[in-house]
Every structure is written in structure tokens, then in C-alpha cells.
Design brief:
131 residues; mainly alpha; two-stranded antiparallel ribbon; 53% helix; 9% strand
Length: 131
């Protein structure tokens, strides 16, 4: 993309901030430049956030019914999925999926809860319940 073509329409999901993008300058070199985003990006981002909000709502209902662990709710509330929580916590994906079940989550040792706590940016006491 040429530097003159970098979108500057604005994007409400960026909350007034700009982001760094790569573009070609007049000499054909790849340089960094700031972008305020564009409408298509805003629509896609808003849709993705709406999906995560709905997943968090559904997870909260499952936790309340005893069908899921609080970890599932907090994962979606923090805009994560199993793959991202796996990467940030250091647990294999199959283990994260296992910990989404109430029986296995309840048996987690403090050191595992601490890893999830750090990955989600929550105190362990908050991680173990619902808001």
C-alpha cells in the first residue's frame, strides 16, 4: 500500500488512538506510518467483540448451572479463546479445555490458578467465581 493510501477514516474501536502500519513511500521503501483506521475494520472488530460478549454471557449461564468452570467465563470476558489462553498461561490447549470443566477446575492447585490469574490479569479469588 502506498503511504498516501493508508486509511485515515477513523475507527471508533481504536478509541481515538492511531496504529502503526507499513506502507511504501515515494522512493518505494517500506516505512511505518500512523493510521486512524477505516470503516470496514471497525465493522469487523465490532462484530468480533459482539461474538465474544455473547460467548461470555452464555458461559456465565453455564457456570451458574454448574456446567462450566468460572475459567470459561473469564476467558471470554477477557477477549480470549482456548488457543490464546493456552499461549498466555503456558498450558497445552487440551489442558485448558479440561480446566473449563467444573470438576477439574475445582481440583486445580494454587500454582495453576496463579498462572491463569496472571494470564487473565485477575486475582485468584476473582478467577474462582463470577462477578
Amino acid at each position: 500500500m502506498d503511504i498516501d493510501a493508508v486509511p485515515q477514516e477513523g475507527n471508533a474501536t481504536l478509541d481515538g488512538h492511531a496504529k502503526l502500519m507499513y506502507a511504501r513511500d515515494a522512493q518505494g521503501r517500506v516505512v511505518t506510518t500512523r493510521s486512524r483506521g477505516w470503516e470496514a475494520e471497525e465493522i469487523v472488530t465490532s462484530h468480533a467483540v459482539d461474538v465474544l460478549v455473547e460467548q461470555a454471557r452464555e458461559a456465565k449461564e453455564r457456570v451458574a448451572r454448574g456446567l462450566a468452570s468460572p475459567l470459561e467465563y473469564w476467558m471470554y470476558e477477557r477477549r480470549m479463546d482456548v488457543a490464546l489462553l493456552s499461549q498466555t498461561s503456558g498450558f497445552w490447549q487440551w489442558r485448558v479445555r479440561r480446566h473449563l470443566k467444573p470438576k477439574h477446575f475445582a481440583a486445580l492447585p494454587q500454582k495453576h490458578l496463579a498462572r491463569y490469574s496472571e494470564a487473565l490479569g485477575l486475582p485468584v479469588s476473582t478467577l474462582q467465581g463470577l462477578p
